[in-house]
Structures are given as C-alpha cells and as structure tokens.
Amino acid sequence: MKVILAKKAGFCFGVKRATQLAFEAVGKDQDTYTLGPIIHSPQVVGKLENLGIRALDSLDGLDHGTIIIRSHGVELKDINDAKQKNLHILDATCPFVTKAQKYVKSLSDSGYGVIVVGDAEHPEVQGIVSYGGDNVFVVALGEDVKKLPIMKKIGVVAQTTQSFENLKNVVCECLLRGGEIRVYNTICDATTVRQDEAKELAAQVDCMLVIGGFNSANTRRLLEVCAELQPRTYHIETATEINPVWFEGVELVGVTAGASTPKWIIDEVMNKIEELNKSD
Fold it and tell me: Do both 23 and 54 map to the same domain?
C-alpha cells in the first residue's frame, strides 16, 4: 500500500503566525489568555493550556493581564472591551481575516448592503459581521440571496475558508437582482491551493484521510471536496482514530490536513499508517 501526503497539508501562514505569537508569549506575563481557541486544533490549545495560556470564552471578570486575539479574529465589541479594561492586546488575527473585516466596514460606511458568504455560526464570520452596520447579511449558498431584501448597492465578501465556486454562485445571484455590485474575493490563497490539491489527490487514490479539528471550517471543506470524488474519505483529528478496516483492498492512500493541523499530528498519522502497512 502506497501513501501520498499532500504537499500543502497542515499549517497555513495565518495559523503558523498565530501559534508562534502564542507560544512566544509563554512566561512573559503570568496572566496570559487567548480569547477563544487560538486555532481550531484541540491539541494545540491543550499544549498552550499546559504552558499556562488558557482559552477564555469571554472577557467577563478579567481586569488585567494579556489577551491574545485568536487567528479567526473576534467581534469588534470584544476588542473595544479589552481596550477599556486596559488589557495588553496581542493580535494574532490572520491578515486575510483582518482584510475581510476592513472591507465590511468600508462597504458598510459607504452605504452598501453587505453580504458575507459563510457559516453564520462560525466565530470568524461573527467577527467579520461585527465590523459592519445594520445592513449586513450572512448567506451560506447562492439560493439564500433570494431571501434577502432588495438593495440598490450590494457589497460581497467571503469567509476566508469558502470555496471559490460557492462565492461565484452567490455573486451570480446578486447580479440577477440588479443594482450596483462590489465584490471582494477574501478567500485565503492557502485555502484555494489546499482544496485544489486535495481534489487532485482524491481523484487518484482508493482511500482518503483528512486530518484536522472537527471544529475546523477549512478541514470540513477539505472533507467535502474529497468525499465528492472519493466516497472512502475519512475525517480524523489524531492517529488514534484510524480504523485498519478502512485500508482493506486499498493500494493507494491519500492524506491531507486542514490549515490548523500541526505537523506533529500529521507525522503521527503517517507513522500509524506505516505501522499498519508493515503488519499486513
């Protein structure tokens, strides 16, 4: 059985930057926290907690110390709250997410109704939306645009982990509604590259493994694009979840990983597959 690991599997620039900032902060301030998980990897969050940096759900009750803004960003009110509390702020927001936040503010300030393409429940999207005014809407699919009020001026941005195809479908629906349309493609380059590479790999293997946090949007997107081409696609967080039955009758295995998946977890998965291969 041969195993192929995607070249771009694992940490993207934004995640690498965020985790580096967090680990560099260890020991500098006894009271250091992240606002939400620094990235969507329970294993990385666990390592930071063991080093003394705990993830908080909110700033309630916190009146001193250092707060690290997670890679997905946070809502504007949280930033303002941290400033009012005179907390030391270490901003680890991914630059691509920051760009989307700025576009929403700019569009909203210019009188556009803003459409954010993404998952309304995702913290990145909630943060992006918070930078606009009252006329900001979140849509998951192109067909959702039909449910929105008529707007003379429409601005469109995307959650950074969206597929280009989905963004295109939403934009097409906006065009059918007429008016002035302004579109910013805020999809992260790393997301597009990983999805394209995953599609190519899934199309040629007998089994596909996608490694990453179950709460990671970009990992779930990788799972979706792979499963469309290879039904025997499995999502795991760690090597312990691998089921040997998956590889029965398999000659070629493909492995990819979400942008929040650390290298050590990918290595453990590859080693586990190698062990199973030797035991056959």
Answer: yes
